[in-house]
Amino acid sequence: MKSKIKLPVQCPSCDEQLHVSALSCDNCRTSITGHYELPPLLQLNQEEQAFVYHFVLNSGSIKHMSEQMKLSYPTVRNVLDGIIEKLRKN
Amino acid sequence: MILKKNFLLTPFRYIDGFKALAAGLIILAVSGLLAFSIQFRYDGFLDFHGAPEPDYLYLLDPFINWIIFALLASFTGLLYKRPFRVIDMLGMTAVAFFPNILSPPIAYIFGLSGILPLITDTPLIDIPKVIGPYMLQLLLSSFLMLAVTIWFIYLTFQAFQTNLNLKKTQSIIIYILLLIITEIITVSILRSY
Lengths: 90, 193
Hints:
The complex is a heterodimer.
Chain A: E1 20-24, E2 31-36, H1 46-57, H2 62-69, H3 73-89
Antiparallel strand pairs in A: 1-2
Helix pairs in contact in A: 2-3
Chain B: H1 17-37, E1 40-41, E2 49-50, H2 61-79, H3 86-95, H4 103-109, H5 112-120, H6 127-131, H7 135-164, H8 168-190
Antiparallel strand pairs in B: 1-2
Helix pairs in contact in B: 1-2, 1-3, 2-3, 2-8, 3-7
């Protein structure tokens, strides 16, 4: 989450979901190529991933999330509902 | 997810729970007092009319309008099995009555308590003559009242939608039905005393 380089999950050209086609080891320089699906959580956009990250850190408490985000409880719950719906579709 | 701060149109992104309920109850009490002080009353969910013979019971009008709307909205939530907190529903729907605070000052500034009896006491054919000198006042006040009503409807919709998070088209249709039912129930209760 502290990384400044964002992992793109959607094609900037046609908005389709991107796949992983190359992985490499920084230690031994081994490279793997293939066609791998991104895990469901990584298919969320950056803001949604950040929400899930903080939600887990807050022990899944919507109340704590709403205090942290300075948003009302139903607003936070609605954001969570949106993410749940997206994950179910993926 | 990018939420722009706009307290006038989307206050329910930021206020909830007991804070919203406390603020809402104050709003309802103030709007009732202001209307009472200029001999007007909220005799229906979307109504604001002159009450030349004020009764202390009229102070309850905003509370009755609110509780009926909040109960019907909560019932809708239960019907559609939406997970909502009753405290948020009560608080947010009460805060949504904020625009109603503006109606009494508008009526007072434009002298509506003096003009409206003239209209109601005049035969239909003579009304144009009677309202002639007050036309500008009536037009301006009607325009402002309309703006207040639209804002009120928008906020009650926001309170309803934020709590129940129904799909957009579905929520608009259900809200319109809710508005009509609330209006019918409140008018029949409030105009009976």
